[in-house]
Amino acid sequence: MPISERALWFAGAVLAAVAAVALMAWLGGALYLAWAGLAPVHATPLTLAASARALGARADWGAGEGLRIAVSAIAPVIACGLGVFAVTTAPSRHIHGNGRWGGWFDLRRMGLAGARGLILGEAFGGFVRDGGASHVVVVAPTGAGKTSGVVIPNLLSWTGSAVTLDPKREAWTATAGWRGMHGAAYMWAPLDSEGRSCRFNPLDQISTHRARRAVDLMKLAASLIPEPANDTRWIAQSAQRLFRALALYVLDTPGAEATIGEVWRIANTPDDLQAWCHLQAITRTDLDPACAADLAAFAGAVDKERAYIVNELHNALQPWSAALVRAATAASDFRLADLRARRMAIYLALDPGDMGAYGKLLRMFFEMAADAVMRDSETHTQHRVLLLIDEFATFGRLPLIEGLMAAARGYGARIMIVCQALSQLDDLYGVAGRNALLANAMRHLFMASPDPATSAYVSGRIGDATVATQTRSRASASGFAAGRLSTTTAQTARRLLKPEEFERLGAGRAVLLAPGAPPFRIALTPWFAVRALHRRCVAPPEIAPLAPAPPPSPFRTGVQTTRRGPRTGRRRATTRAAQGEMFGARPGSTTARANAPGPGEPPEDDDVRLLRYIDEFGENEDGPAG
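^ thats the sequence. predicted structure below, dont judge the formating
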């Protein structure tokens, strides 16, 4: 709280106390004069003090005079106390509800009238700002002005780091220049037709600690390959393990390109992937143990299961079939781990028409950013992080966000979720999940929406007010009461804001709900109409176009897929010979002599024998012929 504001409040409290004491002194003086038979209109706040001083100067004053002064001084205090007690303990007359709109004192009591924090709108001649640690949910339909009234004002005033979705690049144009002047600004637009995008390689964000890498890659795999809630979960889980294995392989292989694009290239090899995985698992002693185990598990699966697993992995990595995506993920111009260490703003730009096929890229980015924010770090107190998730429903279900909203306050992060209607949250998370998200976000900003679920929720949260209604009736009986008009007053309940009234709220108007406070009527002023914000709009930094990614050459494993022919006697014989070659024949046997190296030839190692065995005889899924 600014010092001037604190001093103003203190001065106001002192003046109120002085006025209360003066009023009670005046009432006491008037009572004393009336008791003495004098005119009370001549009383002043100093009457009692002057009378007591004059009485003390007399030598013959009696006890009755002193008692009269004492009673006159105490009586106003007692009367005032009884009045306050009666008002505060009187039974409420709002038997149907006491709903009302919040005022400026309510805003101040809730900490929403400060000079810092997230901008939620304007009310009572100033900004409504939340400087605490609460998360915010904004519900507004398309075209309601949430970008110009909420998103851009906060990006122009937030002093920490920020990550935001910017499909139309409006926020980048209006705020990137100012944020770049006070830190760093990046725009990741993996499908920009001109290639004007910063680069972000997810594998560069993986921990360099060997014991931690497998955990980070499994989180990345779960983001790219979500598990369905049915009996086919094992396919997604196996595809996650295969992705982790291939990612560890490119990280541990000298000369390999450590990108998801390279993982996609390996997964789409025209050669025998199963035999290659088996070969790497048994020959590459330098691979991570988790990599070797996952490769061996895939190689040991039956053909039908492997087909399901590979197909699932192909679907998950389909975005990397685009050259633009491979170029935008070939390296990294920033690290998510630096969000708290230095002030930076990251804008994610993806056209709305591309959300369906490539939305998993943004979901992956936000989940990795949330995970990076929640990592223990010595620098987590330097800069707070704002995750501004616009068009929240386009990401699908984000399990990590649910947990982050409950724990992010301890990591210096705040989340602002923007969606079009509560029904979108119901479809993704169910009613119970939606209520859990709203419970973790203590500030709810609603703009007029035609969605019935949103209108009913807002009207129910605001509550009822008790309204007095009068009913007039005229007696029809004959005689003295004939034609007499009678009036009956009754108290009834009325919604403070009915659903249909909320739907007609008007442009630039919103309702702010906060637990423990009455609802507030908020005005959303566009950023360009606020001089302090408009001055911060400068040209955004230029982004050089990326070099287009070359067409990927097929990844060759060196193991060709062999067609299986009919099993003949010769096939069984050669298979037995190959079995002896692979698993070791008895010394001196015919098989051992036939496969022995010639004079001067070096002995073959296991991987060469395995390659030659598969190349000559193919796979025998039924085992060696007997």
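The radius of gyration is 38 Å.
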